[in-house]
Design a protein that fits this description.
Largest sheet: none
Shape: elongated
Number of domains: 1
Bound molecules: protoporphyrin IX containing FE
Structural class: mainly alpha
Number of strands: 0
Strand content: under 5%
Order of helices and strands: HHHHHH
Oligomer: single chain
Radius of gyration: 17 Å
Amino acid sequence: METLTILHSVLRWLLLIVLIVAVYKAFTGMQNKSAFTDSDNKSGLLLTILTDSQLIIGLVLYFMGPWGLKNIQNQGMAVVMKDGFQRFFAVEHILMMLIAIVLIHVGRAKSKKANDDVAKHKMAFWFYFIALVLILASIPWPFRAGFESLGWY
Ligand code: HEM
């Protein structure tokens, strides 16, 4: 389980880099009204692969790790909800990340289906950008109060 936690933690950086690149590419494509290239399509594909890998690892951690379902069963939901750290992993992290993952998938699907290239970039930009904001806000960064014990990688 510890190996999976490390993998989940390290994968955050890869996912963030690919997501930021995809947002940047979509933004410049939208501004410059440039063609939606194979490289744009591939960066969206890589993004969904990384996102889904993070989701699978996250689900295993949630159902089998110490801070997800097991903690709710052991402590009871009332106790978990009163503690910021426990509530974060039991409810907030999974909920916000699931929304972000759905946005990434919808963004890619809508971008693929859009009629013209500017619309493709526009769809990708807005969905990926909102997902990026949600992900940045829902990562247990070690500078956040209560999460100092967690590492940067
Ligand atoms: C998609 C973007 C996601 C990112 C960037 C992300 C990032 C992280 C990070 C950085 C940690 C802290 C790891 C550590 O140092 O201890 C963490 C923990 C955790 N994440 Fe995620 N996560 C994501 C999605 C998810 C999803 C979708 C789930 C559940 C389905 C999930 C479940 C968990 C759980 C249960 C932990 C606690 C692990 C433990 O310490 O046992 N994550 N996540």
